[in-house]
Amino acid sequence: MEICVEYQRFLSELPKRDPNRNVAEFDENVEETNIPKDVKEGHFAVIAVNDGKSKRFILELSYLRNPAFLMLLKQAKEEYGFQQMGALTLPCHPEELQKILEH
C-alpha cells in the first residue's frame, strides 16, 4: 500500500489543469515534424543519465503504471522540476532503468 500512497502523493504534486481552459484547444503552430520518428503513438522518450553515462529509451505508456518507474519520475521531478522539454531526463544509470524495464 505504501507505493499507492507514494503514487497519490506524486499525482497530487503535478501542476493542476486550468478549469477555464478548453481541453479541446490545441496549438495549430506545432509541427508534427518536431516529434522524432522513432517515438510512435502510445510511446514516449526518456533519457537515463548518471555519472556521465546516458542512454535514450522509447517506452510504452503502460510503464507509467510501473511503481519503480514512478519512483524515477519522482526523483526526476525533484532534481529537474517540471520544465523539461522533449525526452524526460531520469537521474539513474541506464543499466538501472534497463533492469526496471525488464521486470
Automatic annotation (TrEMBL):
Coiled coil: none annotated. The keyword Iron does not apply. Pfam families: Auxin_inducible (PF02519). GO terms for biological process: response to auxin. Keywords: Developmental protein, Growth regulation. InterPro entries: SAUR_fam. The keyword Kinase does not apply. Belongs to the ARG7 family. This is SAUR-like auxin-responsive protein family.
